[in-house]
Amino acid sequence: MLRPPIRRKGDAFVVRLGDDENELLSRLLAELRALLTTDDPAAVALTGRLFPAAFPDDPEREAEYQRLMRDELVASRLASIDTVEALLGDELSSGDGRLDEDQLTALMRSINSLRLVLGTMLGIRGDDPDEGDEGDEGDAPDEVDPRLVGSPEHHLYGYLSWLLEHAVRALSGR
Questions:
Q1: Could you tell me if residue 89 is inside a domain?
Q2: Is residue 170 in some structural domain?
Q3: Is the C-alpha dihedral spanning 66, 102, 153, 149 positive or negative?
Q4: How many domains does the structure of the chain reveal?
Q5: Mean pLDDT to the nearest integer, 88-110
Q6: 119 in a structural domain
Q7: Coil, helix or strand for 85?
């Protein structure tokens, strides 16, 4: 049986990723940082799921909420990315792979942010990549573009989901 990539060991969490995986996560996090720090409409559309509407039925209140909170929410996501980038360059590449709960939470948050952006690219709206989003007013669910099923992005989404699952299991003690 293969050892999970993330597991609990006492009060710490051990993360075992290969050099290629560390490099991939570093590159993806740099791309996520670029998306979060631009006002480009395409980037804003890709990161929309990172900032769900607080007042979906009240556009005026929602605009005010976004105006007041967006910078703080972006800063929080960037802080998680900073933490994970430091870990990838230190603990996870040359150290013993041990993280505390706050570090593991930052890793989980960053992985999930990457998943949400990839899911947006793939047209995935729920937790199951094989299920589309149920449209408003009972419309038929959107389907993942068949050209994207089996694509590198689709496989990457699966890999990130797998990592996140093991992080959640480790955190919950399972």
A1: yes
A2: no
A3: negative
A4: 1
A5: 86
A6: yes
A7: helix
